[in-house]
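[Meeting: bench + compute handoff]

Bench side (C.D.) handed over the final construct sequence. Compute side (W.E.) agreed to return the predicted structure before the next meeting so the bench team could plan truncations. Sequence as handed over:
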Amino acid sequence: MKNSIGSNIKYYRKQLGLTQEELAGQLFVTSQAVSKWESDAGLPDTAQIVPLAKVLNISTDAIFGLEQGNYDDLAAAKVHEKFRELRSQIDKRKGALESCEYLLSECEANPLNFEIYTNFVQSVANLSRNIENFGEYKKGMNETFDKYFDEALKKSVQVIRYCKDSNCVEKTHFALSWLYIQRKEYEKAREHIAKLPSANSNMLRESILAKLEGFENGIEAQLKAQHNNSQSLCLPFNKEFVYSAETYFWNKTESTPAYCEWALNIIFAVCKDPTMKPYCQGFVKDLYAFKICAELKTGADDAARKDFAEVKKLILDYVDFCAAELEREDLLACYDEKGLLNMKLYTKEDADRRIKELEEKIKNWCGEDALKKVL
């Protein structure tokens, strides 16, 4: 972290390879003025801050030492843990609202902590899904949501403009895309969608990094990197399975069971390598939820009862799997941080909560009598 405006100016000037004279020339000041700034013998005028930031290709916050990386990573981690806890409540609407309330307060308590800002914008996008089924949100129908939406826009501007972590920026663009879709502001949604990476080129950073790992550190390092890539790729294709199942369920209910069966078979094939399970388990539960509810709605009660018993067993068995995996001597060689966190959080209490959550979803979507048919 830089300790003064002067040292920040000097640091970023040198990063661009500019001399004091060259910087002074672009700002229409003397080189002596720049020298005074950098030695803390003087400060630039307020009117010079914005032009100075533009010349140095940084944010005005960076001049004052508030650039990305200066915030408290530990604070962000603690906030994220609490956020996950609130979001995972059985009552999803309550959890979504409380997440927004909590994260907004943490944004105010942790200015320019872009990871917390990103979590807040994502939480508002999640809240929009809980206004009405399938996103029937119209501006003005919910004052609470409008308030959070306005705050999300303010925070997202700062993340997109100043944050150097591409993951945070991309997550923010994705969340804003969803928010604008919900509000039927489709052109604005497209603007943010255009900022997101596409899978069409099939030229993924992770793929070439694995090759680089091989050339630098040998075949074993390359194989480990490629294994990690396979784990990471489980997340996007599983997410697409769940999104498609949701679309089928609300629009073509009768086609949902067959689609979910197909998707589940693919996931189960992937999980023949057990180290893929932490990246698939949550999606399995979601797919079963759509499959069971579709079966109940189409009169296939026996199939729904069978599937409910299957997914309940899968959830409980996964608790034992996680406990055993966490004792592996080669644990760190098999999983990244995301996989480790998933297994550490998957306790018996968490499994019971997930089963209860599934029951609530069946009751909400199909009715209490339908739930009784599968219990």
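W.E. noted at the follow-up: Residues 90 and 357 are 5 Å apart (CA to CA). C.D. will use this when planning the next construct.
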